[in-house]
Amino acid sequence: MQIGGYKGTIYPINPREEKILGLPVYRSVLDVPNRIDLAIVTVRAEQVPPAMRECIQKGIKGAVLITAGFAETGSRGQALQEEVTGIARQGGLRFVGPNCMGIYSAAANLNLSLPGEVPRGSIGFVSQSGTFGGIFARAVASRGCGLSSFISAGNQADLDVADYLEYLANDPETKVVVMYIEGLRDGKKLFNVGRKIAGQKPVIIYKAGKNQSIARAAMSHTASVAGEDRVFDAMCRQAGFIRVDELLSLLDAAAILTRQPLPGGHRIGILGTGGLCVVLADTCVSMGMEVPELKEEHIKFIISDLEFPPHAPTPRNPVDFAGANRTALQEAGVLNKMAQLDYIDGLICNTPITWADSSKSSVAEQEKLLTQAAELITAIPQKLGKPVVTVDLSDIAFTNELIVKAMEAAGIPTYNTPEAAARAMAILVKYAEIKRRFPNASHPQLR
Amino acid sequence: MQIGGYKGTIYPINPREEKILGLPVYRSVLDVPNRIDLAIVTVRAEQVPPAMRECIQKGIKGAVLITAGFAETGSRGQALQEEVTGIARQGGLRFVGPNCMGIYSAAANLNLSLPGEVPRGSIGFVSQSGTFGGIFARAVASRGCGLSSFISAGNQADLDVADYLEYLANDPETKVVVMYIEGLRDGKKLFNVGRKIAGQKPVIIYKAGKNQSIARAAMSHTASVAGEDRVFDAMCRQAGFIRVDELLSLLDAAAILTRQPLPGGHRIGILGTGGLCVVLADTCVSMGMEVPELKEEHIKFIISDLEFPPHAPTPRNPVDFAGANRTALQEAGVLNKMAQLDYIDGLICNTPITWADSSKSSVAEQEKLLTQAAELITAIPQKLGKPVVTVDLSDIAFTNELIVKAMEAAGIPTYNTPEAAARAMAILVKYAEIKRRFPNASHPQLR
């Protein structure tokens, strides 16, 4: 808390110490002279019931039970967990955990959980793994995003993922909610919260425990009963949750949703070279998107600036640049023109390559041309309101830095596999569909 | 060719030039005084038929037709391609292409295709995309591997992927064959070659053109007819090919197959912390592997060196380290012990973490302990003959450099998602199964 820059007062409670990290220590919460907003409990499991009773006596309304040794350890732990939950219920105290790794709140400057410096941002993360908190904090930073909140849900004896989702749905700092779930205490509750908030902000879920044969893993980790996966899947569809198949896809999905506009449909324009065009087009179709053929009357408009060799096949989407003489400005121009078509909802392209011929123009002229190219690209999300993602399989930085920086500023991501780029576009398409399905969402909407 | 260090003689043929890159130029192949092994043809499409006739007259037996403008451009190009193929057939000249980007052979020091320095290695790559050659050359290097061969197959008018596969199967420099395919000219031929060579070396295929609705992409790229995807899939299974879903998985699969031993079965031991154990176990099961529960009599043997907190659940595979006091040596010890169980065929673990307590030992002592830890890990593939892959989701280098280097030397890869690690293990499991299905393969086998 101190490292995290927490501005409120911290009261360490310990029966033996006098000072901890420079702070005066109290023997019991009952000895603290002032009101306490939140109790953070790290005593041993057997000592939690009396500690909770003292918290209630002190009038504390919220606690974070970091202590482990409850339902995840077996029937004795389960009984102890029920005792603690009963005490809290009777005393009107709500709690996070037990067996969790705390919470992080950017708004409150409160960090009970994440190591190192936490990137602030608009992603709210609810997790049944505490370890994933620290990992994800770093992983969102590498995606140009940050966290508004992190909640390590632990055994969910009192507050559960549905409560956290409802809280984050109403939290103005949170634009996207991502959840790592091992098991639900109350599936119906999560479903109802989902229906209530659907369309307000994206909710992205990774659910572990798909296979019953390995149920013991989730059980011994967070006492979770995984449940029937098909039921969970159907629930996600009906509640408007986006379910992802891979753990880190949680963050890829969150990142693209916070950075690019939503497409009006699922029709994708593809630009690039050779095999990558084929793979991208095929992958988009496999993921449920469409790659519409360019209308005859638009082909000239699209490719008029390119000099294709005489034998090159007419590009009809995908637009294969291969063989065409071109500059970065021309590539960007083709991209921008495709984005103007009313039957193209989003664009995927190779990161534009700077073939600018240095023999023909001065450095200043080239910079001007590249600036124009960057403007044509960034105008697509910013002015035309259509999403763009790019692919760069090569480690060689063909791409001009000026263009890379402009793309970063416009939130246009670059992926190192065609599938990752297509998946990002598919997430935008999917969430746009969810929003259309729940048009009456009353809250301010994510663009 | 010159940059690539080709040792043979190069004869440039050009009607107008006298010297090219310091080499004397001939007006026709017929003017070259010596025997020619390979013709590389880059003249315009219309000029290919006379050029081929001259090659035949000269007694040349092999050509690489880089020239584009054939079947990929429509019916006129198709006719021209048929003409060229007819000429070659009649004259006993075999050729690669047309509409390709050349070949690379590490053994011959011959590079017609790949930009920059090519990492030499044991992966033979057949591709219907020329661009992927250069991209993959860099991508294999980043996976600690290299190429023995690259063949840009182009339109496959004469030689096709089945021919290249047969060649690479018999090439002693090639340990794994990877193929990027857009369409087959002769599926049965590929199937027959596959059956003939099955079990000799891994053959990994990515097939684009899964969706008929986007067939025009492959058609205009390499004049490929994608065919029915289910048929292709069944062919792969029956011929013992490993089909991968994502483009770069070709290289991930090749890399793990060249670096780790094959497992005896599909039963995986998992070590790590918290949620990652749950995700890994669940993912392994989803991918068709088993995560067997540790037998009661083995648990003590496995975890005897660890100090778990009293309430911690007994680890039964996955072995969750969370909460246990431990050093890198102890983690490595657990890993090694699990690998000794006869019902564990392969291991996935968090990259071992060095908790070595500096207050307890000198730097020299710690280095000794870490060396011992590294030996315990690397002994698993090298002495016990079981594969190990590791996961490191964090960007923070918890892991000791000494251990990282030892793991690299032993070919133990680290992945940055749990799914990537599980996929790598699944590839090993799958190829081991293929080898068991084709036990009579006569050729020297990949371990």
Shape label of chain A: elongated
Biggest pleated sheet of chain A:
7 strands, mixed
Mean pLDDT of chain A: 90
Biggest interface pair, counts:
A-B, 71 and 71 residues
Strand order of the largest sheet of chain A: 7-6-9-8-10-11-12
Share in β-strands of chain A: 5-15%
Assembly annotation: homodimer
How many helices of chain A does DSSP assign? Answer: 14
In short:
The structure is a homodimer of 447-residue chains. Chain A is α/β, with parallel strands linked by helices and 447 residues long.
What can you see in these coordinates?
The structure is a homodimer of 447-residue chains. Chain A folds into three domains: 19-96, Rossmann fold; 103-259, 3-Layer(aba) Sandwich (Rossmann fold); 268-437, Rossmann fold, CATH 3.40.50. Chain A has 14 helices and 17 strands. The first copy, chain A, has helices at 48-57, 75-91, 131-141, 161-169, 187-197, 215-222, 229-239, 249-259, 275-286, 296-303, 328-340, 363-382, 401-409, 418-437, and strands at 19-20, 23-24, 39-41, 62-65, 94-96, 103-105, 110-111, 120-127, 147-152, 176-181, 203-207, 242-243, 268-272, 319-320, 346-350, 388-391, 414-415. In chain A, the strands form four sheets. A seven-stranded mixed β-sheet of chain A has the order 7-6-9-8-10-11-12, with helices on both faces. In chain A, strands 14-13-15-16-17 form a five-stranded parallel β-sheet, with helices on both faces. Chain A has a three-stranded parallel β-sheet with strand order 3-4-5, with helices on one face. Chain A is elongated, with a radius of gyration of 26 Å. Residues 442-447 of chain A have low confidence and may be disordered. The interface between A and B is large, with 71 and 71 residues.
